[in-house]
Each structure stands twice: as structure tokens, then as C-alpha cells.
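User: quick one
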Amino acid sequence: MSKPLDETLIEELRAQAQLISFSEEQSSRVLNNIHNLKRRKITMMGKGKKILVAAAAIFVIGSITVYGAGQVIGYRSSVNIGQVDYKNAQEVRKAEDKLGAIPKAPQQFLNGVEFESGYFMMVDGLDEHDNIVDSYPEVSVSYDQSIFLDISPVSAQMSDEEIPAVSSRQNGGISLNAYAIDYLFLPPEAKPSAEDRALKEAGKLQISYGSTEEERKTYRYVTWNKDSLRYSLATFNDNYELEELLNMAEEVLTVE
Amino acid sequence: MDEMMKLLIVNMQTGDEAAFDRLYHTYAGKLYRTAYLISGNKEDSEDILQDTFVKCFLHRSEIKDPECFEKWLMKIMVRTTWRIIRQRKTVSSEELLQKEEYATLVQAVSADRQTPGPLEQIMEKELQSILMEAVNSLDVKLRTVIVLYYYQELSVKEIADLSGSLEGTVKSRLHTARKN
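Assistant: Done. Structure below.
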């Protein structure tokens, strides 16, 4: 007589599991990656901030050739990712007293992307000598380790309106603008190829130094203003096209 | 859970990297195999394991009771598995069955059990093989319930807690999976 279905399932799954090898070498490799990811995450959060600013600064460089002393030419921020300030979307609202209006973030997007952690930070504006000449508050929310929602007071942010948007949408009188920037990350001592230098000259590639290895990524982001706050939804993950980011941005607009 | 394990969890929460590594070595194999049974893919399973422990590091302060650590870790693993599978769009049953490595695995289990015997025994092996193909072709959420219930031997309530579903939903998924 055949065994009951339940018993057979238990036996079969155990048998399959036994045949799935997980070697010492594999285990060590994954653990090493985990430690790298932890460090990399810190770097990427920093990069994301610098990149938005870099994009804005590039426009400024293109239109203003002379800087006055004390003028902001770049921004810097840092965060201790081991110290999560907001553990869920509801807690993000607590930043109202720091931002001047209630920041709104969804717990989960319709595509399943979930709230992971939220941080409060001060973003410093730097002059050409790296002196801090400005400072503003910002909340940065991480979703599934790949999407970041940054929220700060509108008045504090450098405008990036002059950077041509790849795509735009109107929603309830709010303009959502989507951008894509190609980035090449290089180790500090590395030199870009002639081709990459030409792309940079043509304004088609941004080069950033400081990574451990050469890496090419497209930075996609959507920005909009609502209730005196500036929102930016950004990612380096190629799984999210601009249209999907725009859909997600529209979901943020609906958060009560 | 023994006191040593509780101490490791508490130390990990204070940022002790050695404790983190010890906990990783304790749970990695089990989590990897469970992720593999759900995702059916080696690369995805490694990514799932990585992301699960990175999240463990990020959210370690949220562990209130060390006794619940394993369930908490399993919960992160299940959510991460669903996200990675959705992102990589590798979940369709046809694709899963076409994955060479996984197909080899299923065959290996069958071959391992192909001992000469009476007709009933042969038919039973055949049934087991068909059964596993059916499990592997299930929708990822149904497959998750099957793996957690039969492989991890979790209760319906535990599965509901860690998958963020109602108990009724888990029962319904189990019923549907069995029927399929």
C-alpha cells in the first residue's frame, strides 16, 4: 500500500535537501560577501547622496564659470547604518519637527518592495575648499536594500530642474520628473579610458572615484515637491526602469 | 535554545562581529537549503542568504527575545526569497523545471532510490518523482508553504506569522498545493 502523501512529501524534501551541497568554501564566500555588502551599503548610501548633488553641481558648473568664496559646490552627508532611526513607515512621520512638514513614506509598494530602514541625517553643503557653508536636514528611507526615498525641505535643496528630465508626469498638480545618469566608479588611483573621458566631456557619463573596483551603473531617480518637502526616489538597481520608479513615486503621493 | 546561543545573539546585537559570524555558521546551511528548495536556483539561494544576513545585521536591535531569533531569521529569508524571485522573474514552473541543475537534483534523488523490488515499490518511486515535479512546478507562495510545513516542520500558525499571512490563507495554500 502507498505511503500517505504527507509522509512521502517529508521524505522527498529531506532527500532533496540532503543533496543540496553547501560547502565550506561556498559558505565562506557568502560570509565574505555579507561583510562586503555591509560596508558597500554604507558607501552606496554616501554615493547616492553625492551623486544627486554631483548631477546638480554639473549643471551649475556648466552655467556658472566663476565661484565666489563660500559658494556651495557640493554636498556631503553620512549616516551610521547600524543605528536605524525609523523602523517603519509610520515612524518616519516623527521627522516632522526636523523637516517642518510631515514626511510620507509607504510601508510597501504595490510591486512588493518593502520598507527596510529609515535614517535622519544632516546634509552639509561644501565650498570649493571643502568648508561647510550650508547644512540641511534630510530623512533617507531604504527599501529592500535597493531603492532610496530621500525627503528634505524644498527651500534647502539645490534645484536640479535644469538637468533635462528623461520622462515626466503630472499627478494632481504635482510634477514628477525622472532622470537617468550613467556612472563609472573607479578605484582612487585608476585612470578612465579615452573613450570614457570623451563620454564624460560630452556630459554622457559621470566618473566617481573611491570604489574598490571598476563598476558601471545607471543611477535612476524621480523627484517631486509636495507640502514644502522635496522627495527623491532613487536606485542603482537595473530591475527598476524609470516608468516603474514613476509608478512608485505616484504611490508615495497617495500616502495619507 | 542553549545559553551559549542566547549569549551569541545578545553579543551580535551589540555589534560583535565574531558572534555574528558564529550565528551565520550555525544557520547558513539550513537557510541556504530552505531557500534552494523554494527558489530552485543556486545563485538565487546564495543571494537570499547574503541579503538575509545583511538584514539581520541592519535590524539586529529589533530582536527582543533571543528565543525567537531563528523564526525571525526565517521570516527575513522567506520575504527575501519572494523579492529576489520576483525581481529575477525566475518563478514560472516551466522555467524552474528547465533549470538543469535542479532537474539533475530531482533525478539524483530518484536514481538514488531505484532499487529493484516489487511492482508496488517501483510505482511508489514513480509517484515520488511525479510528486516532486508537482511541488517544483507550484507557484512560489504555495511552494514556500509546502517547504516550511513539510521540510521545516513549522505549524500553520508559525508559517502564517513568518509569511505575513492569515492562518486561513496558509491552510488554503496548503490545501491548494496538495490538490495540485
